[in-house]
Design goal:
By secondary structure, this protein is an alpha/beta fold. The protein has 14 helices and 18 strands. It has helices at about 20-25, 70-80, 105-110, 150-165, 220-225, 245-250, 290-305, 335-340, 350-370, 380-405, 410-420, 425-435, 445-465, 475-480; strands at about 60-65, 85-90, 100-105, 120, 125-130, 135, 145-150, 170-180, 190-195, 205-210, 210-215, 235-245, 255-260, 270-275, 280-285, 310-320, 330, 335. The strands form three sheets. It has an eight-stranded mixed beta sheet with strand order 10-9-8-2-1-11-18-17. Strands 6-5-13-14-15-12-16 form a seven-stranded mixed beta sheet. Strand 14 (about 270-275) and strand 15 form a beta hairpin. Helix 2 packs parallel to helix 4 (about 150-165), helix 2 (about 70-80) packs parallel to helix 9 and helix 9 runs antiparallel to helix 10 (about 380-405). The longest helix is centred in the C-terminal third of the chain and has 30 residues, at about 380-405. It is globular, with a radius of gyration of 23 Å. The protein starts with 17 loop residues before the first helix and ends with a helix.
């Protein structure tokens, strides 16, 4: 084992959506995921592997930058490999990302989440159209089926602490710079410069050298910038946590609401999601980000008396990626979660995909490092992580992108979207697809009926919808990639 150098962290001390649902009906969801078993591939460019180093000299180091679901799940896998030193950076251990907080039922079992981190079990949903037509869905759910509502500071903290218990070294710090080895350097190390947040304001900048980096540091990823991963369009999500009366809270006991209309967002939706003792009220947009507060005001107005008199206890805003980054792996640096762009259009769902991508990336690194005896190549990581992930979810992202263009294009399309929600077949297949990340028992005849029903809904929506207000935002339009 290599001797520690000045500035090295100490040894670990383990401590004692709704629109995704409807969109999923129009495309088969990805199959439920097993751990990847794809054989490792090689190419002439990336096939050269580092010479295995002697176990008595040192262990290879892997740093996970970011302590949300993607980073925590990656670190948990890595920490269980005794011949790899795992570090996890998080600048704010109580970070609360603005997020609806909805997670599918399959995630609870797959990731071993305890019941106490689930604030609410949503079994009813209300879709509200631009004309305020309300459609209730949820009748097809079984008694033991629900959508889990969480607070991100609780969920993230649990996953991160579990990774630490397995042996990951937590570093409470802001990563300020990453120096990368050359692409053709098979053994060169990454140097991470960071400012500790738990050693006072005057704490000096420290450095850590590592062999592999997993970038789980969100839409503004410093890892992505360091490896020149390219840019992507992003939405701004804005959410207010509002404390309402007990009587009002009873209304949202197991109910979530989603509002569509150009007043709440020209390309997304507004939501009211129940939390532990309050509701999260929010919205988002890509095409008109400067107007986000206007859309938030409209969302609160649409909710009306149901949240009237409530006290805003927290205001949150955060960028949300709109599509994959152009590059997600470079040399021995890998992107996961929001840093990679793993958020579905149309719904904005990202928690499950973040956790899953983190786990798959961690497994790919462990597999390629062969018990800590070798370094992975770029091809290893592309074959064992990127290729399986894209095979599972690529079609879903593509189709949801198309559906967003269709159903968020105008108030008429939004009216049609809500109209379609009345179909029990739509509800059944939608919930099955979302809760289990796979389609169960599609009926070809009903699929054909749904196709014709969609045309009918579009015609009815066009007949009753009010025209969308024009958006004059040339600056934002020019920023779009």
């Amino acid at each position: 084992r290599r001797k520690r150098r000045d500035g090295d962290p100490q040894d670990p001390s383990p401590p004692d959506t709704m629109l995704a649902l409807l969109a999923a009906t129009l495309v088969p969801a990805a199959a439920y995921i097993a751990r990847p078993t794809t054989a490792l591939g090689r190419s002439a460019l990336h096939a050269r592997r580092a010479t295995p180093r002697c176990a008595v000299e040192m262990k290879y180091r892997v740093a996970v930058v970011g302590g949300g679901p993607s980073g925590a799940c990656a670190a948990e896998v890595l920490a269980q490999e005794p011949n790899i030193e795992t570090y996890i950076f998080e600048r704010k251990m109580d970070n609360a990302k603005p997020c609806g907080g909805a997670i599918p039922l399959c995630m609870i079992e797959e990731f071993g989440l305890p019941a106490e981190i689930i604030d609410r079990k949503v079994r009813k949903m209300k879709m509200i159209s631009p004309s305020n037509r309300e459609v209730d869905i949820g009748e097809t759910l079984k008694d033991d089926e629900y959508i889990g509502m969480t607070r991100r500071e609780i969920l993230d903290g649990y996953l991160r602490n579990r990774a630490v218990e397995y042996g990951a070294t937590p570093i409470n710090a802001l990563v300020t710079k990453i120096d990368c080895p050359a692409d053709d350097d098979a053994t060169g190390r990454y140097t991470i410069s960071y400012s500790p947040n738990d050693e006072g304001k005057k704490a000096p900048t420290k450095q850590l050298e590592v062999d592999v980096i997993i970038g789980a540091d969100g839409a503004n990823s410093r890892v992505a910038k360091a490896i020149d991963a390219g840019e992507y369009n992003f939405a701004i999500a804005f959410q207010e946590r509002i404390k309402i009366s007990d009587e009002q809270m009873n209304f949202y006991e197991d109910l979530a609401e989603m509002y569509v209309g150009d007043d709440v967002s020209p390309d997304f939706y507004g939501w009211v999601f129940p939390k532990y003792d309050h509701v999260g009220v929010g919205t988002g947009t890509v095409v008109n980000r400067p107007a986000i507060k206007e859309y938030q005001d409209a969302t609160r107005a649409r909710a009306g008396d149901k949240i009237a008199g409530g006290k805003i206890i927290k205001v949150e805003a955060h960028p949300i990626p709109e599509h994959y980054r152009p590059r997600r792996v470079r040399n021995r640096a890998v992107l996961v979660g929001d840093a990679a762009g793993y958020v579905t259009k149309c719904s904005g769902e990202g928690i499950y995909f973040a956790a899953k991508s983190g786990r798959m990336a961690g497994e790919a690194v462990v597999q390629a490092m062969k018990g800590g005896t070798a370094l992975p190549t770029q091809t290893d990581l592309e074959q064992a992580y990127i290729k399986p992930y894209d095979a599972l979810y690529g079609p879903t992202y593509t189709v949801l992108d198309l559906l967003q263009k269709v159903f968020y294009s105008s108030n008429a399309a939004r009216e049609a979207f809500v109209d379609m929600c009345e179909s029990k077949y739509v509800q059944q297949v939608t919930f099955d697809s979302y809760l289990y990340k796979k389609v169960q028992g599609n009926n070809p005849i009903d699929d054909i009926k749904l196709l014709f029903g969609t045309f009918g809904s579009l015609l009815r929506g066009a007949a009753i919808a009010t025209p969308d207000k024009p958006i004059n935002n040339p600056v934002e339009s020019l920023k779009r990639l």
